Each structure stands twice: as C-alpha cells, then as structure tokens.
Amino acid sequence: MTRIVILGAGTAGTIMANRLRRLYAADIRARRTTITVVDQETRHLYQPGLLFLPFGGYEPDDLVRPLRKQLHRAVTLVRETIDRVESSANRVVLASGNTIDYDLLVVATGTRIAPEETEGMTGPGWREKVFDFYSLEGAVALRDALKRFDGGHLVVNIVDMPIKCPVAPLEFAFLADDYFTKRGIRDRVRITYVTPLDGAFTKPTCTRELTHLLADKGIELVTEFSAGRVDGGKGILAAWDDREIPFDLLVTVPLHAGAGFVARSPGLGDDLGFVLTDPHSLQAKVAPNVFAIGDATNVPASKAGSVAHFEAEVLTANIRRYLAGQPLTPDFDGHANCFIETGHHKALLIDFNYDVEPVPGHFPFAGFGPMRLLRESRLNHLGKLAFRWVYWNVLLPGRDIPAVGPRMSLRGKQFPRPLTAAVPEGLVPR
C-alpha cells in the first residue's frame, strides 16, 4: 500500500488532496493507496476575502466553510497539531505523541504572521491603533476601527518580505482611498504606503504603473523603510535606520514565517521556516519522497493562490512520476497571475513567472483577451470578484482552469523591443 500524507489543509493542501484523490481513485477504492491530510483547523478560510472585509465587502461568515467538506470523502482527515517531521524515518510526529508513517509526504502548511517578532507591535495600541488584515480576527478589528476613523494619518506598512499575496498591501491602500472618498472624508485622511522594497512592487514595469497610480490617488510612497519598532501608544513606526513615521492608524503586514514544526524537523526548512524546495520540480531538498507546495516553500515565486494552483498541476504529475519510478520534470516556471484591486470598481491584472516580469497585453487569449494586462479596467475588477466562486468550485476541488495552464504563455503579451530585453534567452512566445 502507498501511503500519501499531506500536511496542511489550506489552499495548497486541499487542492493537492483532491487532485491526487482523482488521480489515484481506482487505487484508493482497491485499498492500494491512502491519502491522509493533517491539520488542526476545523474551518477553511477564503484568505483573499480578508482584503475586502475591513471595507464592508464581506462578513466573516462569508469567508469560512467547514474544512472537512472541502476534502473528498475518500481523503482521511486527521485533526491534530504537527510537532515535527522525521524524514529519515518517513514519519510525522504529532503533538499528541501519535505518529503517521508515509511513503510520500507533501508539506502544504503555508505561512503564518508573526507580529510578535517586531518590537512593540503587539504592545500598547495593538488592535486599537495597530492592525493587520492577514488574519480573520485582525480584519474584523480593522473594519470596526475604520468605521470610527474620521481623519488623520493612515500608514500601510510591510515589515519585510516574503509575505502572502504581495500585492494585497497595495490593494489595501487603493481601497482605503476609495473607502474614504465614498465617506466624503478623503480630504481629511493622509495615506502613506511604506515598504522595505526600493519601489512599489518587485517588478520594474509593474512598479512604474503602480507608482503612477499611487501618485494619482494622492497616496504617499516611502521606500527602503525597514521597520524595526512600533510604538502604538505614541503612534510611531520606526525603521532600523532611525527614521520615524507618525501615524494615527497603522495597518501593518507583519513578518511572515513558515509553520513552527518546520524548524523542529531536521533539514526540512530555512531560517524562516520555509521548506527548502527545488523551484522547478517542487521536490524538497531533505529527502526524495518529500515535496512541498504553496506558501510553505522557499521558492522565489509569489505566495499567492494562483501559484499554488499552478504548482499543483506540476506537482501532481511529478508525484505520479516519482511513485512510478520515473524521472521528475522541472516544469514549474514560477507562473503567477494576480488581480490588483485599485478601487473605484477597477483592477489591474498581471501575469508573470520567474524570468518574465508583468507586461501589457491580453489575457488569457492572444489578440482579444478579453482581459487587459497591466491596465485598469472594470472587467478586471469583476474578475477579481468572480475569483471567490472559482476558488470554492474550481481551485479547491482540484480542477483545471480552461485556457490557463501552469506554464506562463507569452502569447498576447506586448514586450518592448528588442524582445530579448524582456524575455530571457531561450524563451520565445508560444
């Protein structure tokens, strides 16, 4: 019998469990294969909705569903906390002391926020003047604070990278502009976007477009600001270089780290608790029968739901190859696409991978789209809203999205001339 164990039942873990269940359905029925998922949670959270909740776009109950119901009934769910992985013994040790043996392991435990790692952040002012929206509790508290906020200095800050959904902090700033405009108090609110990066985003072409949008909306941009301390009582955000930014309301994106058990598992992770993973095959470095997916990995792709979905297609195929004794294929190219909500019922869409940055063009079909890349449109906004249905009904069940494959297509994209300036050698439009 082949024992497949998946750690984590978030986006990536649920997608993988359902995809592998479909792939090995006959073997599961014949009891030649088992799939076990380990997670201590009882509910599944639609994380993209946390961005909209502070502005009244969703209620908390709109974002959660029973975790068990998102997994196929043929998948076994173990509700326990993971203590460590002993890869040399092919064993997962649980906090209860129980163990689960595996023949193949997939680590899909995502990432967690660690606000306590920044001096003063969870001290005076926490959830009073200092808020996050990367947790359900934080987003609800921030919603209530925004309702009470009648003017002053709103600061949106990323403490450090990497983070889940790297565009979400920018989206929050854009939506705040929209929110206060609709309330009629935008002229009384100063909005500042503070980032440790040297620009608004990590990709040059996209950074130029987003910087232009920030300026158009009257949002100040502060770059290369490495936050080291928060004084919620005095309303001060301080950098390691002693620069200080006063605030009346701080919306922070705290430090992110991998799951705690990764650090307790010999050879599994890096210093931040992210699993050391081959960026193209998604095989973990610790052992050949261990794989990783989604936010849990250290691969240099965005920590976003679209990435988990694209990785899942590649990883499913490589797991099949591994169990069949065949060589793995390095098919994951870092493909990510993201809607960037810009407020006022518009959004941008970007599509990129490890080697190719976001550029203008059409998506998903060359020539007519219907969606425009790197351009604000109402259609992109509707696409962002429609993603919630796609998430519950297509992504989590492990189904493919028509016309959108795991490898990034260069067709329909408008590259600057010469083409080699934007596309690495060896890549051609297809």
Key traits:
disordered C terminus, 3 domains, 8 helices, alpha/beta, 430 residues, 25% strand, FAD/NAD(P)-binding domain, five-stranded parallel sheet
Overall description:
By secondary structure, this protein is an alpha/beta fold. It has three domains: 2-113 and 257-323, FAD/NAD(P)-binding domain (3-Layer(bba) Sandwich), CATH 3.50.50.60; 115-255, FAD/NAD(P)-binding domain (3-Layer(bba) Sandwich), CATH 3.50.50.60; 336-421, no CATH class. Helix content is 23%, strand content 25%. The chain contains eight helices and 24 strands. It has helices spanning 11-23, 25-29, 136-148, 168-183, 204-216, 260-263, 305-323, 378-395, and strands spanning 2-7, 33-38, 43-45, 64-66, 76-78, 82-86, 91-94, 99-101, 104-107, 111-113, 130-131, 152-158, 189-194, 219-222, 227-231, 236-239, 244-246, 249-253, 256-258, 290-292, 336-343, 346-352, 361-365, 369-373. Strands 5-2-1-9-20 form a five-stranded parallel β-sheet. A five-stranded parallel β-sheet has the order 11-18-12-13-14. A three-stranded antiparallel β-sheet has the order 6-7-8. Strand 13, helix 5 (204-216) and strand 14 form a beta-alpha-beta unit. Helix 1 runs parallel beside helix 7 (305-323). The two termini are 41 Å apart. Mean pLDDT is 94; it is low at 419-430.
